[in-house]
Amino acid sequence: MTQHNTNAGNGAPASDAPFDTRPDAPASLSGQRRLEEKVGKQTRRRVIAASFIGNFVEWFDYAVYGYLAATISVVFFPESDPQTALLATFALFAVSFLVRPIGGFVWGHIGDRVGRRTALSLSILIMSAATFCIALIPGYATIGIWAPALLLFVRIIQGFSASGEYAGASAFLVEYAPPRRRGIYAAVVPASTATGLLLGSLLTALFTATLSTDQMQDWGWRIPFLLAAPMGLIGRYIRTKLEDTPAFRELAAEDHAVKAPVKSMFRQHWRQLLQAVGAVLLNAVGFYVILSYMPTYLSEELGLGATESYIATTIALLTYIGFIFLTGMLSDRFGRKKVLISASVTFILLTVPAFALLGTGSFLVIVLVQILLGAMLTLNDGTLPSFLAEMFPTKVRYSGFAVSFNLSNALFGGTAPMVATLLISLTANDLAPAWYLVAAAVVSLVAVALSRETSHQPLRHE
């Protein structure tokens, strides 16, 4: 059965020529190129904007929560000593991740069965509403134990909704991208993640520099969470104006969409799933240690001033965004495996010395080290979205990406700030988070080495 679709934004009919579904399809990518010719530049720009803003809102929240952890710990756990309160705050951060694999199954099913656009439009609405609600929760001084209980409940909702965002946005971009530029297009997703962190860091630095401690604990910490509602509504509006991806429409037109994509993924693609979980491990630990936990590490463990900690992280994030797109281009040119293996090797060799330099107390050295660590992480972060999307065929792409990415993040990403704090407490060694990163890099190195190269191959249909 064949159907003709109209591409949103340029009125051009989408090609009804199927993708070449053979594993050994020729490099000409002729089916995909026919589809590429039918996708206008205006449509691709709107796809990039929609993917960017949705992912931006999600990670802006995670950034603000991580950067304001010390303040939030006082508001919600005032009766505990500072170390215990901070651990409890990061424990709530980690618990919200435990629901993410469940969300990965749900959003993966919706994305592969109903459509990528539908899943992304729903997830951003739930995410922005839950983030907004955090700002409205009274503190422990007002409602007692109900305060952390409500915070936990909202964080769980956030974890569920966020589990479909990163995977869906990556699949959306890869399936709309020109075949030889999937790496740079997918790099928009981690770039939007870093931009969300950047805005969170800027706002936190501004508030800590201009507000007193009492003002921050009373109302200042709530303001960043209030911003999620308007940003989320803008993102949803843009997404509802787009058609689904050419690859998914092609699949639906041929009536090849599977009724149980998650089941199909486990039956037919379990090896890729295991490799993907391992490949994500370095990204999960590295992202939350280097970009989210770092200001708390610098201020609480190394004694750097809170404002200086946020400024250092902000400077590093500015360079990080540029490195992300450079990595995307490198992965298009040299292949996903080579860049991902380079990321693991650099982390194994340089992480511990880099963390040792952080202890010098020099602000300039701290900024330079954070820039270095960020550049190392972009080798993984900028390549991973295209790598994971290309590992799985169209019929289970959303599910494979969402389940592997969220499972690894649930086990190792969301727990990273808590584990780093706990390791320092248990070992009395400020370098403990660095060794944790090295261990993650070793696992990812093995997983990527066992996987196949995907960058110059056509997207598989089945």
From TrEMBL:
Signal peptide: none annotated. It is found in: Cell membrane. It comes from Arthrobacter crystallopoietes BAB-32. May be a proton symporter involved in the uptake of osmolytes such as proline and glycine betaine. InterPro entries: H+-coupled_symporters (IPR051084), MFS (IPR011701), MFS_dom (IPR020846), MFS_sugar_transport-like (IPR005828), MFS_trans_sf (IPR036259), Sugar_transporter_CS (IPR005829). PANTHER family: ALPHA-KETOGLUTARATE PERMEASE (PTHR43528). This is Putative proline/betaine transporter. It comes from the Bacteria. The chain crosses the membrane at residues 47-65, 85-107, 119-137, 183-207, 219-238, 273-294, 309-327, 339-357, 363-380, 401-428, 434-451. Residues 47-456 form the Major facilitator superfamily (MFS) profile domain. Residues 1-37 are annotated as: Disordered. GO terms for molecular function: symporter activity.
